[in-house]
Design a protein that fits this description.
The chain has about 450 residues and is mainly alpha-helical. It is built from 17 helices and two strands. The protein has a two-stranded antiparallel sheet. α11 packs antiparallel against α13 and α13 runs antiparallel to α14. The two termini are about 35 Å apart.
Length: about 450
């Protein structure tokens, strides 16, 4: 029976029909047509396998869950991260303080890789300036938390004034990930400061741990903007990040051929699984037929069609797979010694790709980008260009070399006769991260009055 067809019409179509009673009046076995006789297509709005796999998706299709349910879900991000930060941070502080004490007692300055030409001691710290320059991450992280709190308060205030309009227009507002991003920025400052108490190859993982967290949270936030109902949970997200940090530790300790082969396989498998998750909007199963279904999609969407069913999604995933395969091949062939930076490069490359894709899609679908976000985008590009210049081309220490060889690269202070080039990297990267967070927060302010049924998902 086709949609919109009554049961009586179906009976006639099947060879049945009306009957007559003793009085000669025409009767129908189905009595009279009532509301229950019609298929009102409610399953289109209720069945996930139908509305999530539509060719053209809108935000209203992916924001059907109750506001209270989603609010509880997103609050877990910053609450769990606070607990993780305490348990991860305390042993790190204890370890680097122990390193500093050993250096002070033994006088063996080969333990830590300082820029001795610009190392200003204070108290027990041998290079106070390198530790103190991380204050930018902490202060800007606190500032971002304050801005998030203010925006959260304004949103709750607008809900009281006109709840129906707020819940039906604009991008759904959930602030748990923003709070988590601000907290992660604060923790990055603390962990980077701990690393610079005694910079070594083994301690560098502390400096990058929360950079992985920041990059992961940013990608989750961008995805959740237009996919609020199907974003990953806090528990699964932090479990994945914990496994990634475990891989970083293994890469630092066991950076041999077998590890690189294992990591490359894990990397490709994760890219494959995420591609399926994003393309099918979570409507896929991990079973023995998963490869068969993927081949069917490639055959029908790529080989037999002029264009894939979900063109934008396919373009993003194609670019993402090409970039990740290239990075994976480079890693297993060259096997760089600095595994922590290599892993961070994977996160940064994917985050930049996703952010560029998001902004490009806004332009493609003729959504306005307001002057304030445009200003911050331009300033952020300039800031990051300067930060990367000081990080890559002005490095004055290198723990990949012997301590004596590293000292030959040491150089004088360049700012106020107190800060060296790496300190400038700290200041500029902290500002760059802060502005990147702001861009995510205000980028879709042009859609505040637009009904969600007209806001495209990409």
């Amino acid at each position: 029976m086709s949609y919109g067809t009554t049961r009586s019409q179906a009976v006639v179509a099947l060879g049945g029909g009306p009957s007559t009673n003793s009085a000669g009046h025409v009767t129908d076995d189905s009595s009279q047509d009532d509301e229950d006789d019609y298929d009102t297509l409610e399953d289109i709005d209720q069945e996930k396998d139908i509305y999530r796999t539509k060719t053209n998706l809108f935000v209203s299709d992916l924001s059907k869950k109750k506001v209270i349910t989603l609010a509880k879900k997103y609050k877990l991000y910053h609450k769990n991260l606070l607990t993780i930060s305490i348990f991860y941070g305390l042993p790190v502080v204890q370890l680097v303080v122990t390193y500093q004490k050993v250096l002070n007692i033994t006088g063996n300055e080969d333990i830590c890789y300082y820029n001795f030409f610009c190392a200003h001691p204070l108290g027990v710290l041998s290079a106070f300036n390198n530790v103190y320059s991380n204050i930018g991450y902490v202060l800007l992280g606190i500032l971002f938390l304050c801005l998030t709190l203010r925006r959260d308060w304004l949103h709750k205030k607008s809900l009281k004034c006109n709840e129906a309009k707020v819940q039906s227009c604009g991008i759904p507002q959930h602030f748990g990930l923003f709070y988590a991003m601000g907290l992660a920025l604060v923790m990055e400052g603390i962990m980077s400061g701990c690393y610079h108490v005694c910079p070594t190859y083994s301690n560098f993982q502390f400096d990058t741990a929360f950079m992985y967290v920041i990059a992961g949270l940013c990608m989750l936030k961008i995805y959740s903007i237009r996919h609020p109902d199907i974003n990953a949970t806090a528990n699964s997200s932090y479990l994945a990040l914990a496994l990634i940090i475990l891989l970083a530790v293994l890469g630092v300790v066991y950076g041999r051929v077998w590890f690189w082969i294992l990591f490359t396989l894990v990397h490709i498998a994760c890219v494959y699984a995420l591609s399926l998750e994003i393309y099918f909007m979570g409507r896929w199963k991990l079973d023995g037929n998963v490869f068969k279904r993927v081949w069917f999609v490639i055959k029908t969407d790529v080989m037999q069609c002029a264009a894939p069913t979900h063109k934008m999604r396919f373009a993003l995933l194609l670019c993402g797979n090409i970039i990740n395969w290239a990075i994976a091949i480079f890693g297993v062939v060259s096997q760089p010694k600095d595994f922590a930076s290599y892993l961070l490069a994977i996160f940064i490359a994917n985050l930049l790709l996703y952010m560029t894709f998001y902004i490009s899609m806004k332009i493609y679908f003729k959504e306005r980008i307001l002057p304030v976000p445009v200003f911050f985008i331009l300033m952020d590009i300039i800031t990051w260009a300067g930060a990367l210049y000081f990080f890559i081309f002005k490095a004055h220490t290198n723990w990949e070399k012997m301590p004596a060889q590293s000292r030959e690269e040491n150089d004088n202070c360049i700012v106020l006769n107190f800060y060296d080039a790496h300190d400038v990297w700290h200041f500029l990267s902290a500002l760059g991260l802060f502005m990147s967070f702001l861009i995510m927060m205000i980028l879709d302010d042009d859609l505040i009055k637009i009904p969600r049924s007209k806001i495209r998902v990409f």
